Structures are given as C-alpha cells and as structure tokens.
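Archive entry: two folds, one per protein. Generate the first.
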Amino acid sequence: MSNQNRPPRDSMEFDVVIVGGGPAGLSAAIRLKQVNPELSVVVLEKGAEVGAHILSGAVVDPIGIDRLLPDWREETDHPFKTEVKDDHFLLLGPAGSIRLPNFAMPPLMNNHGNYIVSLGNVCRWLAGHAEALGVEIYPGFAATEVLYNDEGAVIGVATGDMGVEKNGEPGPNFTRGMELLGKYTLIGEGVRGSLAKQLIAKFDLQKDREPQKFGIGIKELWQVKPEQHRQGLVQHSFGWPLGMKTGGGSFLYHLEDNQVAVGFVVHLNYKNPYLFPFEEFQRFKTHPAIRTTFEGGKRLSYGARAITEGGYQSVPKLSFPGGALIGCSAGFVNVPRIKGSHNAVLSGMMAADRIAAAIAEGRAHDEVVEIEADWRASDIGKDLKKVRNVKPLWSRFGTAIGVALGGLDMWTNTLFGVSVFGTLGHGKTDAQSLEPAAKHKPIDYPKPDGVLTFDRLSSVFLSNTNHDEDQPVHLKVKDMSLQKSSEHDVYAGPSTRYCPAGVYEWVENGHSHVFVINAQNCVHCKTCDIKDPNQNITWVPPQGGEGPVYPNM
C-alpha cells in the first residue's frame, strides 16, 4: 500500500517544530521559551529517549551553556562534574611517543576551563530544562518526510509510519505517522541527517560552498583501575597506527568514577579501500603509551558516529523558506579542537532568537535570512574561521607537514587575524577520494584478544542496538548491479570495512557474490551514506525509537 493509499495522517500545529533532541535542538527550544513563554514548541527525537543516539567525546567548552543557562553551576544535578585539569598532546610512532609542549599549541587548543562529559547526559539534562519551560518532547518519533505548502516553503514534518512489514505493507500493528506543522521548522538531526540532506539538495544550500567533509569517530567507555585513572586528564594524539597520508587521531578523556572515554577518528577522505577504521582503533589501544591505561580494566560501552569536518568554508546556507539548519546538520565542528557542541548550542540560540522575532512580527513560512546573514560574524563564525585551513592543509600535505602548517596557520590567525593561505578549498568529496583496490595492498590486522581489542559484533552488543527485523531495510541501495560491478569488483568491498557495526557483507554464492545488509546492527553513524564511492547507499531512519541506546556516551 503506497503512502497515497494509506489513511490520512493526524496533524498537530505548533509555532516551531524542531527535529532532533541534540544540543542544538534542545537549546533552540529552551531559548524560544525564554524569549516568549507563549510560543508552542515541539522537539522530535528519533531515539527511544533523549540522549539515546547521542555520541561524542566529549570535552565541552561551556560558552554556549553559560549563555543559555547562566545559573547552571548552582544546580546540584548538572552533568558537568569533571573540569579539565591537564592537557596532553602526543605524536605516536610505532613503538614510542613524543609529547608536544603545551606552550607550542595555539591558545584555542587549551582545554582548561572546559568539562569532560557524557554528551548524552548533557542532552537529558537540557531536556529537563526544556520540559520545565513547557516544551513538548516526543522521543521515539523519527521525522521521515518534509512537508511543503503550494509555494514550496517548509510547513513542518511527518513522522514515519510504524508497523510496516518487510514487503512495505502495513502489518497488524500498523500506526500511521503524524504531521507536525509549524510556522517555522528547525532541522537539528546531527551529522548527515536524512531531512537535512534533502533540504540541502532541494534549496541548493551547498551552492558556492566547498563540499562537506567528514570523519568517522569510534568510541569506547572503560572502567579502569584506580591507579590508571587521572580525573580531568585530556589526552589527544595523532600519528600511528595511521600512515602519514591518512588523517585522524585519538582522544582519552578521564571522567569521574574511574571511567575513561577513548575514541579514534579517521578522516573519511582516505584513499585505500582496504583501510579498516574499526581495526585501526583496536590497534591504537595496543600502543605502549596507551595500553597501560586499560590493562586490568573493563569495557562498558561502544558506539560510532560520523563527524563533520568541512568547517567554515563547507557550512551550507542555513536558512530556507520556512526554517533553518542548526548544529551538526549545518556542520559547526571545530576540527583541531574536536568540539562542536558549544557551536551547536550557540546556533540553536541564534536561530531561536531570529525565529521568535519573526513570529512576533506576524511572519510564518518565509525565509528568516537573518540566521544565514548573522552566523559568520557571531562567535560560531569567529571560532571556525581561525581553524578553516587545518583540515585542507592536513589533507593536502599529510600528517607530518600538514599538522605543522595547520598549527602555524592557527597561530597567525590568532595573533594577526589573517592567514597566509587565505581560505583553502577541500576539493573532492570523501566518496570521490576512495581509489580502486588495484592501487593498494590489503592491510593485515591482528586478531582481537578479547581483553584489550575486540571484534565488531561484540562491540555492537554493548551499544544496545535493536531494530525490528520485520520492517523495510532502512539502508537503501539504489542500484544493486552497480554495487557488484563497482563497490565489489573495483573497490574490493570497502563497505565491509568502513562500517563500524558489521552491517555489510559480500557473501559468496556459487560463482558470484551477494551484497548482504544486516540492518539490525546499524548504529546510525551514516558512514555508508558518506563514503560509498558511487553514492549508491542512502541512510533513512528506521522506525522511531530503534537503533542504539547509549548510556553515558
């Protein structure tokens, strides 16, 4: 039964509809109610609860929270328990490491005054503030469709139908989705959101911008032995196990209660289709400078998420008729700082201020161009402009020279407000960066020991990921014959490696190979949507509430 033949959807009307219960969406909701308590505001969150799908390092610069909730430090239940006390930067070689002196780092790289947190718990806390102000929050509802009026302006979104069976037909527990209509709609779905992707294409929001760039971040949370724990320590590294031509790095963040968050980021513009980001992360933990932290410890959680890395020159136009992009849907991550949540909060507040003013003037469904006009002059723009060349320099010159040039560029931007490089472009998309397998050799990765290093399936188990198997697969392959002739035959099946959850397999079937999609494993990282060399895989939301359930991530 097609959507057209299904019963009509019920609808609800609000002043503002917000898609995504992350830092940007929740901050926008809070700010709207602070400006005008009479506004009706709804937040849709596809996770089973607020925070369930939130994954980040995370070290948070409190600039955004300080502006949104100035008295937060007086609360007893806030999640900012661990202030950064010590900052280490390491360059790793195969057997040793060099600690880079802190005085050589540009001031913006200093983490003192920042907080090590679970960003999921920050969002749960923000949701409490939003609800106390009268914001309606609907977790477990995935927005799957943008709604338009006859003039082509966005008037809201629709949630997905529930209880649809694998063949696409309504099952016995079928429930029609809802239409949520608003004067304005804010899209804060996070990185590579499915609705944001559609809106960017429909309104040509990427015009005159550089291509967006991405990384894949893989994270584990560990309980370590007390003698290995240093609450407040932040440690970043780059170098081994990645070669000098592949961008990426790591973090170790020592939280409270003997917990350490460890993560590894691989820039998705890598060339070698045999590269296996998950295995690079496991290998990283065996380094002499790293492994001692985790020996005798216990792994508690696992997850993965794509990260926007394009920065200042890749941010799409934010405003469109009827709404705007906020947070990581727009791509406000500061790459060298590995931070984006502060800009997400600020972007939500900025959009809320402009939209509240538009509604006060009696406007609706028009383009609030002030959001686009203002952001580059705001603290978000100032934050991203200083680091705009770090990523392209790294991509162009490799780790050794590129990182040094990026550091020099950050210093000249900080001291003189200018860059000798101007504003560099990124060139190819991450999908276009992948090279045919014939140009590369397979990489031999060691088997996991089950103590320090692990396989993907046992890792996905720790992410509490769950999907109803009797529903349409939410990973859509446009052309299966192209997948075989190109992704498999030319690129040696990189989907079996770039996916951090083991979703994709090429299975031998007689004289051929069949592409198998284990959609129930998906942790919603969106890497396949980004890195597939033919852009042949599209990620769409499964039924609301499904996917990972991240505790304390």
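Generate the second and append.
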Amino acid sequence: MSDIIQLLPDHVANQIAAGEVVQRPASVVKELLENAIDAKATSIKLIVKEAGKTLIQVIDNGAGMSVTDARLSFERHATSKIRTADDLFQLETKGFRGEALASIAAIAHVVLKTRQDADEVGTEIKIEGSTLVSQEVCVTATGTSISVKNLFYNIPARRNFLKSNTVELRHIIDEFHRVAMVHPAIKFSMHHNDSEVFQLLDTNLRKRIVTIFGGKTNEKLVPIQEKTDVVSIEGFIGKPEFAKRTRGEQFFFVNDRFIKSPYLNHAVTAAFEGLLKDKAYPSYFIYLQVDPKSIDINIHPTKTEIKFDDEHSIYAMLRSTIKHSLGQFSVAPVLDFNKDASMDTPYDYKNKEAVPPKITVDRNFNPFADEAKQTASGSNSGMPRTSFQKEKPKQWESLYTGLSANKEETTNDFSSVIFEKTEITSSLFENETQKVFDANTTYQLRRKYIVSTIKSGMLIVHQNRAHQRIVYEELLQNITLATGISQQLLFPLQLSFSAQDVALLITVQEQLEHSGFIFDSITEEQVSISGIPTTATESEVQVLLEQVIYDLERDIPNSGFSQTDILIQSMAKSIAVKTGVILGPEEQQDMVHRLFACTEPNVTPDHKSTFVTLAIDEIDKKF
C-alpha cells in the first residue's frame, strides 16, 4: 500500500494559518497595530479604505527593521520576541508567535517600507500571496509603513463571507479602541476613505477614554484602584444610573492586552447587585497587572482569552474593589455601624480652615429685674392676694334627670335592635363560571401571557412578542408611506452619543423622521429631539436609539429596504410591552384584536411565535 501522508506546500500552510489569524479586516488591523507598539512607536497612523477590503495601512515611527529582518518577518514562526519555550510564560510584548505577517501576506498584496534611525536608506518589500515580488532600496522615514491591499483576493469564498462595510468598519474601530485605550502615552490617528475618524493625543487613561467615547463620559466614571501581591487593579466603572441595554462599553485589559472573560465579567456584575435595572449592563474599563508567569495567553489564536493560575482570588479582589469604590464615592449605600455619618467632612470643606465662632454677650442683661419689679409693686399696693375658685353650676341635679329611665329602657327593650345578616350565595364562583365561556374575556397569566378562549379550545398569547408584531407593522406602514405621526415634547430631549454613533444615526435619520421622530439639531456628540413617535414614551427614547445603533452596527445588510427593516425591528423591540407589565382587561382584549388584524400575526419580526393554541382534545388528554 502506498504512502498517503505528505507535507503541505508552504503557501497552503500559510493560507490555513491565515484562517486562524485573519478572520476579517479587523484582525489585520489588530496585528499591525500591536507590531507598531512592540517597535516602541510613539505615533501610529491607521489608514483604511472600503472598511479594510481595499486597503489597510499602518505607519509608525518605531525602531524599524534592517534588510535581513524585513525579509525574515514574512517567514512562518519568525519572531524576535522569544528564544526558548520558557519565554512563553514571561511575555511582555503583543505578538510573539511569528505568524501574523506570514498569514497576512498569504492572502493579500503587501507592501513593506522600513528604515532604522542609523541607516540612510530603507527597504521596500512587495509580496503577493506568499510570493516575493520585489525587494529593493527606498527612501522612507524612520519606522515602518506596511500596506495590505485586496484582502482575500485569492480566497473568494472567504471574501464573500465578509459583512457590509458598516459592520466591518465597526469591528475595525473596536480593535482600534482596544489598542488605543491601553496605551494613552502613544499618539493615534485613524482615517477612513480620506476622512479623519480619530485624532488621539498623548494623555492619561481617563482623558483617553473620554476622548474616544465622548465628553459626557467623564461624569459617568468612578475610579477604582487596588494593589495586592496577586493582582494590581485600576481603571474606571460607570455609575449605575448610566447603565445601558447593550454590552458595548465593557473592557478588560490584562498586562496591557485586551481580553474577554465571562468569569471576571460576572465579578463586576455581582458588585453591582441591587443597583442596576433589569437587563441593564454597567460600563467598565478595568486594567489588571499580574505576574506574566501566572497567566497563559497562548490558548486562543487571537490571544483574547487568558487562563489564570488563581482566578478565584482575582474574582474576589475585583468584586470587593468595585464595591469599595461604589461606597467610597457615595454611589452605593454603605452599612457601617461604627461610623457616624454626621462626622463626615464634605468635599467642599476639605481644604478650608476652621473659623472660630463669634460670641456676643449682653452684659446689662438681668433676668431678675422684671421679677423684682413685680414683687415691689405687689407689696407696695397693700392689696390682699385673691384665690380663684371654680363656681359650681346652679341646679346641678337637673343634669341627671331621666338618666335612670333611659338606662332601664336600654337594658330591657330589644325590639328595635336590627342585626346585620350576611347574604349566603349558592356558589362562590357562579359569576366567574359564566365569564369563562365569554369569547371576549381575557386573563393575564404571570404578567407574561394573555389567555383567552376560542371555539376549538384555548388561546395563549405572549404579550411582549405580540406587541412587537403590532408595533412593527405600524412603524413599517409609517416609514414606507412617510406618514409617521409625532407627539411634540414640551422640552426637547438632549441625548449624548459618541461621534461614531451619531454618524450612524445620520445614515438612518430620514427613516427615523418618517417613523415620527423630529430632530432639532445633530452635533458631533449630541442629538436634540423635539418630537417622538406616538407609540413611544419619552423615557424610552434613549434606550430605543441605543438599540437601533447596536443592531445597525452588527446586522445591517447592504440593501436599503433591509436597512429600514432592521431599524423597525430595533424600534419594535424597545417600544413593545415588556414581560412583567400588568395589563387591564380592556388592554388585553385590544392587544389580542390588534394582533389578529396584522398581516402575519403568527410570528414576531425575527420569526418567533407570538401565540399558541390548545385544542379541547389536548386538554382532555391531560385528565
């Protein structure tokens, strides 16, 4: 029998490795930014075109590479970060496996320009699909500039799986945020299709976060800090009243590396227990520093998951640190029996000096002066003291006349006494039994379902899903016909969003106006609204727009109708009656009637059942 195992060619092996390292354009951005940081760059510029599908370019002023290093950087498992296997457990750099550039070069056209400060000229290398096209001397600035063009040009199947430009750009911005937030001392800039998206100057952590997420973020942040032998914790958490319905602003960094950890996320949520509304998620920007030997960051191809040696201790310390900060800054109540709250010094009086009180004394005051005058006047008048006695009323016996007669009459005569009698009914549920068979009668079960009767048996309606279908079709009609009805607000709403979220709202502003919104003004970080749809309430507008932004960032297809459809679905989710809301009998009946007046009453806009029926035969089988 012939041999069937053979070594794969290098270009095939590189494409397989690229499938693990490069999932989308954002993966390329992450690897190139981390390489620039490892090169000790103080200024990094990111240029993107067509959401990274056409061009991704990173320019830095780092150390640069020699001619030999520039060529070896595109070979598999070629790295300057590690020498032995033990170095894997003492990592202090971003990239270390030597697969990033090799994987990127296997699926794109790559142009590298680099020069060290001591050299007069630099090196330019062009690679297409792992094939070296040219290597020559060039004139370039100190540092490295690497351009990745036509991503997945030789793997059409992978390119077809990419999402729309809006979704892919959102992923690129997320990766840019994760790198920029952990390195505030480095200048970052980002351009997309020749327009500036970010311009971040070197600053501290708090200002970097505020610059990225908008000026209103500053008032939402509560600092946390704790240093122990196991872990050093610092960063910021959002105040409970600013919690959102989405998990957007949640960041963990371990040793200056972004990670995802459901276990640590649970520690944060546990610290906020009792302070958050239902289905609200707190914001946090938490930076952890641990011993590199106590973690393993090589368990995931994208290095976003980390294994801790003692994660239980880190969980407990993180939870207690957040609880302490919430209490210290009066965000959460603190129960301390040994502490007198009246002895706390307000922050306004922290640096003020004590002012001695001024005491004014009336030295001519004599409390016995008036008494002495009265005594003297009484003794000099010679008038005798008089004692006042209460005068007895005349004919006092007449007050008790007839008392004995009334007492005897009350005691002996019971003929005029009327006793209350409770009416006895033949059946306690007699009236209810009549109502059960009334087709117009509905009942609410556990504040979640509406139960009614039909000819064939029983109807059970999910109130939240049913209302989603009702609101969806109403909004769809308003937007498609451009006949949305608005309710005017007495005072316009001033809502704050990040610059990226505002730009996304502008793309769907016309559809929002057709649904009933009236925008007074839209600035870089603020939206002013003077009118809202009649189906929404003023308190729901912030959550509604946040849900719209969240869905548009992740699910928006290319076609205009689909974009409108996603928008309406998001609004319907936010406006619909939630589980737990008590509905009156008339509201229940109205919802059932409006549901079956819809064109597709069976399912929600995202194809979930709105009601079920139980036939008499099914009910009989239960007995």
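Annotation attached to the second fold: Residues 215-328 form a domain with the Ribosomal Protein S5; domain 2 fold (CATH 3.30.230.10). The two ends are 67 Å apart (CA to CA).
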